Amino acid sequence: AQKVTQAQTEISVVEKEDVTLDCVYETRDTTYYLFWYKQPPSGELVFLIRRNSFDEQNEISGRYSWNFQKSTSSFNFTITASQVVDSAVYFCALSEGRETSGSRLTFGEGTQLTVNP
Amino acid sequence: GAGVSQSPSNKVTEKGKDVELRCDPISGHTALYWYRQSLGQGLEFLIYFQGNSAPDKSGLPSDRFSAERTGGSVSTLTIQRTQQEDSAVYLCASSFRGQPGEKLFFGSGTQLSVL
């Protein structure tokens, strides 16, 4: 069965610091997809990124970057020069390539990030 | 609609009562998912709909929980004889065709409190 582990329950940083959120996953499938979602205080989950298991290229989007390493089954998320608006719960999630489950996601426990001014 | 809409946003009920939670997915999305978010429990999958059928309902915690979807659109999650442990935020999501790896779009959830 698939599993996602986010070992960091809470992280607190000061504005402008860089912060990395860790994500480790387990799956027996060779085809799978990894996601990061952000949940601000309003409660609605916001999609940030998706990677498939065949694409290990790291990705950068503005202040956000993602490091996907199959060798360590990790998909870490870094925020550079953090801002107060980045304060939220961040979820890492895994979707396996089985059509009977659609794009069902298995989520990690989430990391509460607090960025202090 | 423009996004996934859930109602009510908050529901307070007494133990033993039945409740119905509604989800209106993004127009044209054939796949619909229900999740439950409890304090300290993370996000827990409940059920997946493709059209009006539910090929994966493996996450429903007990036979007090049921869900249906009509017209390939609106879905209702029903909890019978509610218990205090049912208190949680119930999130609905939809995706375009339910293909593996598709992005899920989430609603704002229904906060259920069972007294």
Task: Give an overview of the whole structure.
The complex is a heterodimer of chains A (117) and B (115). Chain A is mostly beta strands and 117 residues long. Chain A is built from no helices and twelve strands. In chain A, strands 2, 5, 6, 10, 11 and 12 form a six-stranded mixed β-sheet that branches. Chain A has a four-stranded antiparallel β-sheet with strand order 3-9-8-7, with no helix packed on it. With 115 residues, chain B is mostly beta strands. Helix content of chain B is 0%, strand content 51%. In chain B, the strands form two sheets. In chain B, strands 2, 4, 5, 6, 9, 10 and 11 form a seven-stranded mixed β-sheet that branches. In chain B, strands 1-3-8-7 form a four-stranded antiparallel β-sheet, with no helix packed on it. In chain B, a hairpin with a 2-residue loop joins strand 5 and strand 6. Chains A and B meet through strand 5, strand 6, strand 10 and strand 11 of A and strand 5, strand 9 and strand 10 of B.
Please give a handful of descriptors for the protein shown.
heterodimer, A: 117 residues, mainly beta, six-stranded mixed sheet, four-stranded antiparallel sheet, B: 115 residues, seven-stranded mixed sheet, 11 strands, 51% strand, globular
